[in-house]
UniProtKB/TrEMBL annotation:
Keywords: ATP-binding, Nucleotide-binding
Keyword DNA-binding included in the entry's annotation: no
GO molecular function, one term: ATP binding
Source organism per UniProt: Winogradskyella bathintestinalis
Domain annotation NadR/Ttd14 AAA: ranges: 14-173
Name of the protein this chain belongs to: ATP-binding protein
Lineage: Bacteria, Pseudomonadati, Bacteroidota, Flavobacteriia, Flavobacteriales
Domain of life: Bacteria
Length: 189
């Protein structure tokens, strides 16, 4: 099990978009991948849970988290082989851990937690809740945005992850993110 959740070594700079639902992570992931002429890793949970909803009309359950985590790491590892520049990750296992603890009484599968803390990224962009909440089949906490944002920020602080808070319009967020990624790339060379 641990092998399926393990992050494979790569030469790319790994960036994670991190934060509550409906805060612009996917939009920004696409924009950044386009800007850097690179690729982005979609959020596997969306695909998995949308299929579950479409077929069974059921929402996420604790038993879904491990298959979601395995699918996410498989996707990330596959995409990391395709670039030596910047890999934009729409999520990571730490996000899965935060959601698990928030939705399921503070619990998280130990293998997910262990891998979430072992896996390494160059920078996290914490997306603030100043974007309009948009409903869809999977989003369900419009009234808990501040609480969820705090849970995400606390995880980054608790586990000493390097992060930048992104607020403002799509254009402002993109500009700030590019500035920080450019600095990372300059310091790596």
């Amino acid at each position: 099990m641990e092998e399926a959740l393990k992050q494979h070594p790569s030469n790319c700079t790994k960036i994670v978009l991190f934060g509550p639902e409906s805060t612009g992570k996917t939009t920004l992931s696409r924009q950044l991948a386009k800007h850097y002429n690179s690729i982005w890793v979609p959020e596997y949970a969306r695909q998995y849970l949308q299929a579950k909803w479409d077929i069974e009309r059921k929402i996420c359950e604790p038993k879904d988290l491990l298959p979601i985590a395995i699918g996410q790491m498989k996707l990330e590892n596959e995409m990391a082989k395709k670039t030596d520049s910047v890999l934009i990750c729409d999520t990571d296992l730490l996000e899965t851990k935060v959601y698990s603890e928030s939705y399921y009484s503070g619990t998280c599968d130990q293998s997910i937690e262990t891998s979430a803390l072992k896996n390494s990224y160059d920078l996290y962009f914490l997306t603030y809740i100043d974007t309009p909440w948009e409903a869809d089949d999977l989003r369900d906490k419009p009234d808990k945005r501040e609480q969820m944002f705090s849970a995400f920020q606390n995880a980054l602080v608790t586990y000493n992850k390097p992060y930048v808070l992104l607020k403002g319009t799509k254009e402002e967020r993109l500009r700030i993110a590019i500035k920080h990624i450019d600095n990372l790339l300059k310091n790596k060379s």
